[in-house]
């Protein structure tokens, strides 16, 4: 399982598709560093042009973000919560799909069980996401230190909080792509399946919640459902919502495993 996970990480830097994905992520993140994060100190000032961002969030969220000792990381926190899941869906779409189309899953199954392949690919994608998240945080910390070298300790502390929470947020998205990839024959098809499932489940849970207020807990079914609540928390208190993505991940991995075990290659 760990050999397969390590191979997934190596594919990121040894294949054309992986390198293109890494280049796209790097370019987008450079633009984010250059503009919103670099200007973070002014971004939250009410009298600054960037202060218009406050209109997108409620006062509780804004007051919470204003309390951050390192404004650059506060902006990174907001951006990462909404942007990284998109990267996650794109990067983790091809876990088993293309191997199924090429017929190489049968060859792999001669050396490893289906569970080993399924969970090994899942773990490999998590390693990739961990590496990218670390690189994003380290680049932001370097930017902070260029402005004020005395902020090293609070920057590292906040970065640890962001890293743990981002991996929790990305867990169910990665599990979702593991599930749909076990049904698809290409990364594009897996992405389409994920979008369809997301839209249908979102509409269904929204309708049920409106018709039956007692079923409002269904709003927590979709990955990322806790993002708005996370923005209202600070520090390690954010881990109070950790159970939501963990449960979502377990359910989605179970569904993916069932498909993987029953599929005919």
Automatic annotation (TrEMBL):
Keyword annotations: Membrane, Transmembrane, Transmembrane helix
GO CC terms: plasma membrane
Presence of keyword Chloroplast: no
Spans traversing the lipid bilayer: 20-37, 74-97, 118-146, 158-180, 192-209, 239-260
Pfam families: ABC2_membrane_2
A GO term, aspect molecular function: ABC-type transporter activity
Protein name: ABC transporter
């Amino acid at each position: 399982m760990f050999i397969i996970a390590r191979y997934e990480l190596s594919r990121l830097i040894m294949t054309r598709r992986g390198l293109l994905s890494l280049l796209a992520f790097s370019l987008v993140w450079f633009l984010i560093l250059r503009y919103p994060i670099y200007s973070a100190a002014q971004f939250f000032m009410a009298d600054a042009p960037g202060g218009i961002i406050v209109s997108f969030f409620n006062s509780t969220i804004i007051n919470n973000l204003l309390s951050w000792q390192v404004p650059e990381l506060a902006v990174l926190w907001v951006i990462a919560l909404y942007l990284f899941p998109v990267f996650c869906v794109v990067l983790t779409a091809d876990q088993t799909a293309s191997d199924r189309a090429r017929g190489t899953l049968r060859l792999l199954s001669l050396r490893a069980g289906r569970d080993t392949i399924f969970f090994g690919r899942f773990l490999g994608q998590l390693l990739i996401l961990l590496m990218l998240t670390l690189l994003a945080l380290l680049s932001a910390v370097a930017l902070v230190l260029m402005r004020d070298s005395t902020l090293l300790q609070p920057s590292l502390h906040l970065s640890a909080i962001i890293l743990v929470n981002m991996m929790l947020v990305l867990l169910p998205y990665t599990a979702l792509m593991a599930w749909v990839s076990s049904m698809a024959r290409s990364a594009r098809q897996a992405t389409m399946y994920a979008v369809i499932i997301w839209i249908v489940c979102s509409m269904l849970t929204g309708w049920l919640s409106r018709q039956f207020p007692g079923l409002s807990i269904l709003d927590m079914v979709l990955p990322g459902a806790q993002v708005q609540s996370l923005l209202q928390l600070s520090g390690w208190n954010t881990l109070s919502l950790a159970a939501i993505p963990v449960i979502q991940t377990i359910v989605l991995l179970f569904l993916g495993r069932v498909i993987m075990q029953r599929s005919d290659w």
